[in-house]
């Protein structure tokens, strides 16, 4: 028997101080998330290992073999691969051009009129940063009595995410993006009935050989990631302290600065609407005659971290017409500054000049 001298152990597994501290920290994290995302009770906040884990729970709770699901044309593989894994599921894609929220809404309206078992939609595209009209989509879902799953991976901590106002069945999000927590943590906000994805010990109702019926235990089998939960709690407190509107304003200013600079470079196609608040957090571009992966590697050599390729979202690239080339994506955060953007633009300009010079010599 080990002496309980650690800061925290597992919540709900003992009455010694380290276990009680873990229980208090986990509940504080649920409370912070419930307050930020307008969740009626902290018990409806479920810890996951990432947004993908949460989306698997949500989709498999609502979609059965042979079902029909409406999705946007900008969904991540965390949605489409799950749906593909369920036999016979028909996916109706609410196809629409970039930065055309009214057309996305029309597409979902047509799908709902046909009848679907669920709607799955991201709040913000992880490739292009386009903000989808989730509030209006949620209204449509309520009108047709259809459950809604929202992937808030790119919006949580930046835009208002409100489980209660949306009336969503589930909202999934990671901890490491806009919530400034550690990797390997996520949250699933539960507004509807949920089916367990994993089965095992919960520290409660141990005589039963079925999972408990109550949240969050029903969806949280096994040992909790307490270092991750403690880190996520601090991230949630940071976001609450800063204010999501202030964070969004800062990111939008940096994104627009980058978009203006990119648009002025020869051969660069930047994917932006350049107006309003219909884009946030993410900006994609590509360069005529240059491979996106090559650009990413060249920028990495200059200590600039971007992501290039298909970003685990081939459907989004197919919808936008960039499937063959992919894009280079930058993601400003609250910790970036205008100087960072200017440095990125200066280094990219140098890369383009070097490529042009190399091409002319060959």
From TrEMBL:
Residues 10-344 form the Aminotransferase class V domain. This is Cysteine desulfurase. It comes from Vescimonas fastidiosa. It comes from the Bacteria. Gene3D superfamilies: Aspartate Aminotransferase, domain 1, Type I PLP-dependent aspartate aminotransferase-like (Major domain). Signal peptide: none annotated. PANTHER family: CYSTEINE DESULFURASE, ISOPENICILLIN N EPIMERASE. One of its GO terms (molecular function) is catalytic activity.
């Amino acid at each position: 028997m080990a002496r309980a001298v650690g800061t925290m152990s597992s919540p709900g597994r003992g009455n010694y101080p380290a276990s009680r501290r873990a229980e208090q920290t986990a509940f504080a994290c649920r409370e912070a998330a419930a307050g930020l995302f307008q969740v009626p009770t902290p018990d409806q906040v479920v810890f996951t290992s990432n947004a993908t884990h949460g989306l698997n729970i949500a989709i498999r709770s609502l979609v059965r073999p042979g079902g029909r699901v409406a999705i946007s044309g900008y969904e991540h593989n965390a949605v489409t691969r799950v749906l593909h894994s369920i036999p016979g599921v028909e996916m109706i894609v609410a196809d629409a051009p970039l930065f055309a929220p009214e057309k996305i809404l029309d597409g979902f309206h047509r799908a709902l009129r046909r009848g679907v078992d669920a709607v799955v939609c991201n709040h913000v595209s992880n490739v292009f940063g386009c903000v989808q009209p989730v509030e209006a989509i949620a209204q449509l879902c309520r009108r047709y009595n259809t459950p809604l799953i929202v992937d808030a991976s790119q919006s949580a901590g930046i835009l208002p995410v409100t489980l209660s106002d949306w009336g969503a069945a589930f909202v999934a999000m990671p901890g490491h993006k806009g919530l400034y927590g550690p990797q390997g943590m996520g949250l699933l906000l539960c507004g509807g009935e949920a089916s367990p994805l994993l089965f095992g010990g919960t520290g409660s109702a141990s005589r039963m050989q079925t999972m408990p019926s109550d949240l969050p235990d029903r969806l949280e089998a096994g040992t909790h990631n307490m270092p991750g939960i403690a880190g996520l709690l601090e991230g949630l407190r940071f976001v609450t302290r800063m204010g999501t509107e202030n964070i969004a304003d800062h990111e939008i200013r940096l994104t627009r600065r980058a978009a203006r600079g990119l648009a002025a470079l020869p051969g660069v196609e930047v994917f932006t609407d350049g107006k309003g608040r219909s884009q946030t957090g993410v900006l994609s571009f590509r360069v005529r005659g240059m491979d996106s992966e090559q650009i990413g590697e060249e920028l990495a050599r200059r200590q600039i971290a971007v992501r290039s390729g298909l970003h685990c979202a081939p459907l989004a690239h197919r919808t936008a017409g960039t499937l063959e080339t992919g894009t280079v994506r930058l993601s400003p955060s609250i910790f970036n500054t205008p100087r960072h953007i200017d440095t990125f633009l200066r280094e990219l300009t140098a890369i383009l000049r070097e490529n042009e010079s190399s091409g002319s010599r060959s």
